[in-house]
């Protein structure tokens, strides 16, 4: 039974040379607004899919990019290969900055930078047989002279990924292969040009349980034999723990925690990582732990939260985390969900339409006329009802003045990645200057 | 090529396991005929038979037709009688001008098939190429091409064909190629639209991104990854368009803008000449060319609809096969029979499922 | 022990294909008690989704159903489609995998509730409907402020909560949940599983939870039924089955699953069988590490082992195994080419 290869082997991981250096990488998308908004010339919102990522990829390592959908892990993986253009930043590889090259200049580099896709069925041209598909990178880069040579090389690669005997697969169409076989063919195509870096985007998540381990095992073998570096993109912490030397946890376009796999899994620093780890379902009934899950869901990428993106869901959020008007609205929604329809009807009449307290303002002004004292006492009551609610740590003051209730929040600070032992984490809880005493 | 061509495993059926590309192409053509059933199969087979008959007529026209298409006198130099009723030497009779109607119909088939084939080839080539380009490149290329195609679409088909035929007749003359080009102009926008739409959706597929990740040039992506996949929607429209093109050709001929009578026999022209005859009770000059048009158009339409039925996943109905379930043998009460019983039942169910009537089950 | 809500006996669902019938579900028996969650696990193509739909009479045309699905003294297999349709909703619910395709984008959430409640409980006033809707949404963690929003205004996880709320607002006694969390993220999945856990305590709804994720079964289910090639090969209480799997397939599947505790890779050789021509005898025998001479020859009997029921010759009954039946089975090596 293959066991986890001692990852950091004898070489201390930091001693490995850097293969690719990513500095302040940003990938932003302009959202096309509604048809009306476009007619009126209003620009759509900007989604910061990758928002300032720094990363040094070391030769021979397996780096995991872990996060939920919308975390930017897939965009980051594609940006590393130049498949999506970088908005800003640098990707230094082989003495060149990939972020500055155009598609034509990138093409020759693609021999060395390859990708394995999530859905092996979609990644293969349905009308191209396996030998042609696997040999195609060779022909694209002019590495083979003839079809026959390509076919021979394809057969070699196909056998290398465990599809033996190759003759049985060479002339088949993708549709005639099982999911695992197709993924092996995709891997064969990725390694045929002798790449240095393989970005694997959820390579096993579409496969059946009994097949997953086989593909992971194959990838580990190939890494050892072909001296590959992997970027393993996944939402599955269990495979990341097994497969990766280092993991980077991503949330809303940023790396919130990065470090050696063993240390992150043994002692996660970021509250988000802690939550993810608690959420992994464990098949061992003896190991079930009581769930203490973060509330809510990942925020709208076009309007990320102020300060730390995770603060609205974080149970440990405190003063500098970036409190804003939306958090007050979310507090009321949670309160009404808990207390029910009657309380909702009574209090929403007082608070007014919640949509009006949407926004980024660090202070909220609620114009309620002569019911201002009532609203202040409602806020006090809400605070008394749930004093552990992190929002209240961020509320600086509640004033009532001339029929307007003003709620002021403490100034938010964007958390930056900083060291906490061997791990780098972007959380104020680990910032010695901001950490609560 | 020193390739070990091992037979493919799996599959089966009446067709021999093809070798490499040729075999696959053959299987591709045979597939609709094998997988179709019911009404779809009837349409497909009937249509194909009609079309094949017409094509054979066209190919062997010199052998089938007793006379030339413009021949008005026999080998002995004697002029044919005009308005001869069908029968005798002239199977379908003769026309006002003394042409042999049967020969005109047979030669007309050759004209129709030639023109439509040429027109299909031209419009396929242009339409698919431009559609791929517009769909793949996008941006201004797409906008300009879509605008041009929409403008062509806006014109009534026959009017467009007449204009093109009129313009071309100055330079190319009144032959088959002019008619083919005129028809091409009508059908290019259709292929363009279908191929462009297919390209736009295929462009988003992972395999296209995979091709980019391999370092493929845009041309390679278009030819090796997009073309082969978007082309699959073309046979159905091509067949249906061919039917339409026959009518357009006949329409052009009828109006006098098509193939000149001196160049080739053409059914539309013959029909136009026959209009005057009907009043005089001369039915055969109109009936036979008309019938030829109907048969060929019907054949192509049936074939196209049949193909559509079997190849278009949106309207293809999954064939419901009867399932026969053997009685479940009580394993606990008669354990010794259980193992053997299961084997026997499987054989029965697998080999002749149709013979056992399926029980009424709740299959809603 | 209370009476079963649902009692399935020898259920078979076969589909006709050109090669012969596909035995998607081939003789399956289980019981569901009130408020109980039964996890139905298996790899793709084992027939678990077909079983879930078959129980509710929601099968595509051409599928053939046989056996017995006992619900309130009736056999749903022989009941008319109309009768089954009337039960669906107030008695039998279904939660799908992809919620967005099941919600009408043009209707507000409130209108979905109005439509559902008016159809099955005519006579409710608008206020009563709103009250019922808001209460069940609250139980799913959706604030009352969102009652009048449109489906597209919700995230994927929220939509799935709405779907569950819509299935539960009629208080059905039995719900099939077909991979309800597969399309969702880890955290949202965990949230929904914990909500489902609360619900089955509060609503007394029996749940058939179809999933391929053994971790979820361990978290969310009371009992588990492991499916392989159209058969339930093992069923029993989750803790027992996972701690002491009695069927080799269950054991191998558990070992193949990569969890946070995984230190070594393990997998089952070979691929799941073709359901048109399943292997003779025990369907797992070609891949089974413990296969014996008897396995390909005879269909294994359901055997009660402790709290579990297992279909495996390893557990007898000895009386039915021929003299040399326990000798190890000699098989051809499974090549990688045959593997998935």
TrEMBL record, chain B:
SUPFAM superfamilies: MetI-like. CDD domains: TM_PBP2. It is a multi-pass membrane protein. Residues 343-364 have a biased composition (Basic and acidic residues). GO terms for cellular component: plasma membrane. It is found in: Cell membrane. Residues 1-21, 328-364 are annotated as: Disordered. The chain crosses the membrane at residues 42-65, 112-137, 144-168, 174-192, 234-260, 280-302. It holds the Pfam family BPD_transp_1. Keywords: Cell membrane, Membrane, Transmembrane, Transmembrane helix, Transport. Its main location: membrane. One of its GO terms (biological process) is transmembrane transport. Residues 109-304 form the ABC transmembrane type-1 domain. Signal peptide: none annotated. PANTHER family: D,D-DIPEPTIDE TRANSPORT SYSTEM PERMEASE PROTEIN DDPC-RELATED (PTHR43386:SF1), OLIGOPEPTIDE TRANSPORT SYSTEM PERMEASE PROTEIN APPC (PTHR43386). Belongs to the binding-protein-dependent transport system permease family. This is ABC transporter permease.
TrEMBL record, chain C:
The keyword Lyase does not apply. InterPro entries: AAA+_ATPase, ABC_Ni/Peptide_Import, ABC_transporter-like_ATP-bd, ABC_transporter-like_CS, Oligopep_ABC_C, P-loop_NTPase. This is ABC transporter ATP-binding protein. GO terms for cellular component: plasma membrane. PROSITE patterns: ABC_TRANSPORTER_1, ABC_TRANSPORTER_2. One of its GO terms (molecular function) is ATP hydrolysis activity. Keywords: ATP-binding, Cell inner membrane, Cell membrane, Membrane, Nucleotide-binding, Translocase, Transport. Gene3D superfamilies: P-loop containing nucleotide triphosphate hydrolases (3.40.50.300). GO terms for biological process: peptide transport. Belongs to the ABC transporter superfamily. It is a peripheral membrane protein.
